[in-house]
Amino acid sequence: MNNGPGKYFGNETLLLAVISIGVFMDGLDGAIVNVSLPQIAQDFGAEIELVSLVVTAYLIFLSGLMITFGKLASYKGAKKIYIAGILLFTVSSLLCALSTGIEMLIIFRSLQGIGAAMIAPTAIGIVAKEIPEERRGKSLGILVAASSFAFALGPVAGGFLTEYLSWHWIFLINLPIGIAAAALSLKFIPGSENIPGDKHRNKESFDYAGSLLFLISVGILITTLGMAGDAGPLSPSVIISLAVCAALFYLFYRREKSASNPVLEISIFRIPEFNSSTATYMLIMGAFGGAVLILPFYFQYIRLWSPAMAGLALLIPSVMITIFSPLGGMAADRYGARVVCIIAGILATAGFLLTACYSGNSPLIFIAATLLLLGVGCGPVMSAGASGIISSAPAEKKEIASGIMSTSVYLGTAIGTAVFTAIFSLFTKTAGSSMNPGAEIFMEGFFACFIAGTVFCLTATLLAYTQKAKKMT
């Protein structure tokens, strides 16, 4: 039974616990895979450029469909979309584990991305709808905590599962979690009606054309960026693909501008402060996303560490982000997002620049210190940047800004992953294969990737500097 927005008379703690299971599974999968990529590449005889699609395919569908499913929930009901997402995610996890080739794994990871895109926005929507306003912030904080814990646990779990069982178990671990989440959600999440006040939307046509245009545009953009290293950034195929991508984004813009009920209300992009905050956020997410793609290969190919050891190393920035992200959010509330993003952005820039200086025999203390600096720098920007996006939007557009902010997390990560892959490929293709390019060529590609990450972070810091300072009272 649905009791209307903010009037859930059941056990709120139980409701949050049930939703947190799905959010945890979603977050875990976003962090557990990267550390296993070297082993997946070895088992399937795949080059880094191809195996990186295991990550980017997932992110393309996740970032390309989040806004769509968030909007669709107001037509079909958040509960229906959420549970369908849990089931799709669980089934596709099993299919990923059963994959017998890299192409098959990429296809099933795409299905996982669709499931994740159904889970993330509807989980927040259910809490916003069912929990009273005076406890809503705390409830959303619990969901963030569940996701953050999964994010921190992911690299360690992925490393140990890969080393002591096999990489297949990074997907099989989702089965009991997903089954429990679906069963409990059916029983304890109330209602499945659309949001009160939005019932008129059933009489309007959903913007399927806009949704499809956005997904295709994002897919072409990320895929083109990823292949630029192998084909060459100025090759005809890359230039033509980017031109097609630009044309599709323009068609999307025209569609959303004229649609009676657009999937994305683009009028919000007329706000300069919103645009700079979103760009800052995406650049930091892109830098960190690219870093956690390349670092496992350095640890396992150059340092010859085990997957478990590599996972423990990646735990350092993950834990720092989990700790410093909420601290950055609190500091942003007091001092403004601008000052937090500038200070943390400088730290992140320094972290990437120092990480670019890795060699085949860098001292462990240096590696640990740089990984710590990456987390301490990126974490506060992630939360303060999100705060800046929301606060820069007028009251009537806060919900739109929130949806764009959530999409920016994964779109920025996808772009960063594709850019790092392309840069790395530019260097390693001269060796004939990125599977075994040789330590010297590998480190040249590694250096170039983290210089790119440095540029990402420096640009984010400069963009933050251009934003308006918060007036202290």
From TrEMBL:
<feature type="transmembrane region" description="Helical">
    <location>
        <begin position="402"/>
        <end position="425"/>
    </location>
</feature>
<feature type="transmembrane region" description="Helical">
    <location>
        <begin position="279"/>
        <end position="299"/>
    </location>
</feature>
<dbReference type="InterPro" id="IPR020846">
    <property type="entry name" value="MFS_dom"/>
</dbReference>
<keyword id="KW-1003">Cell membrane</keyword>
<dbReference type="GO" id="GO:0022857">
    <property type="term" value="F:transmembrane transporter activity"/>
</dbReference>
<feature type="transmembrane region" description="Helical">
    <location>
        <begin position="106"/>
        <end position="128"/>
    </location>
</feature>
<comment type="similarity">
    <text>Belongs to the major facilitator superfamily. EmrB family.</text>
</comment>
<feature type="transmembrane region" description="Helical">
    <location>
        <begin position="445"/>
        <end position="465"/>
    </location>
</feature>
<feature type="transmembrane region" description="Helical">
    <location>
        <begin position="48"/>
        <end position="69"/>
    </location>
</feature>
<dbReference type="GO" id="GO:0005886">
    <property type="term" value="C:plasma membrane"/>
</dbReference>
<dbReference type="Pfam" id="PF07690">
    <property type="entry name" value="MFS_1"/>
</dbReference>
<feature type="transmembrane region" description="Helical">
    <location>
        <begin position="234"/>
        <end position="253"/>
    </location>
</feature>
<feature type="transmembrane region" description="Helical">
    <location>
        <begin position="206"/>
        <end position="228"/>
    </location>
</feature>
<keyword id="KW-0472">Membrane</keyword>
<feature type="domain" description="Major facilitator superfamily (MFS) profile">
    <location>
        <begin position="15"/>
        <end position="472"/>
    </location>
</feature>
<feature type="transmembrane region" description="Helical">
    <location>
        <begin position="12"/>
        <end position="36"/>
    </location>
</feature>
<feature type="transmembrane region" description="Helical">
    <location>
        <begin position="167"/>
        <end position="186"/>
    </location>
</feature>
<feature type="transmembrane region" description="Helical">
    <location>
        <begin position="140"/>
        <end position="161"/>
    </location>
</feature>
<keyword id="KW-0813">Transport</keyword>
<feature type="transmembrane region" description="Helical">
    <location>
        <begin position="305"/>
        <end position="327"/>
    </location>
</feature>
<keyword id="KW-1133">Transmembrane helix</keyword>
<feature type="transmembrane region" description="Helical">
    <location>
        <begin position="339"/>
        <end position="358"/>
    </location>
</feature>
<feature type="transmembrane region" description="Helical">
    <location>
        <begin position="81"/>
        <end position="100"/>
    </location>
</feature>
<feature type="transmembrane region" description="Helical">
    <location>
        <begin position="364"/>
        <end position="390"/>
    </location>
</feature>
<dbReference type="InterPro" id="IPR011701">
    <property type="entry name" value="MFS"/>
</dbReference>
<keyword id="KW-0812">Transmembrane</keyword>
<protein>
    <submittedName>
        <fullName>MFS transporter</fullName>
    </submittedName>
</protein>
<dbReference type="InterPro" id="IPR036259">
    <property type="entry name" value="MFS_trans_sf"/>
</dbReference>
<dbReference type="InterPro" id="IPR004638">
    <property type="entry name" value="EmrB-like"/>
</dbReference>
